[in-house]
Amino acid sequence: xxxxxxxxxxxxxxxxxxxxxxxxxxxxxxxxxxxxxxxxxxxxxxxxxxxxxxxxxxxxxxxxxxxxxxxxxx
Length: 74
Known about the structure:
There is one protein chain. The protein is mainly α. It has four helices and no strands. It has one domain. The two termini are about 25 Å apart.
């Protein structure tokens, strides 16, 4: 099974959970360990992951196709 097929086989709720969970985990780490360079980077990467995941969520199939078309030209 290809990784792309695995993502498409997830339910909409599972996709949202895979977007939200790393972000919430980074917030918990930042609360527990305070502000540091490591927790700052973890928070930044999880925020980017959250935004990209939300942009490609199942309810935005048209936007996902536009992004595929856009990056397919490069």
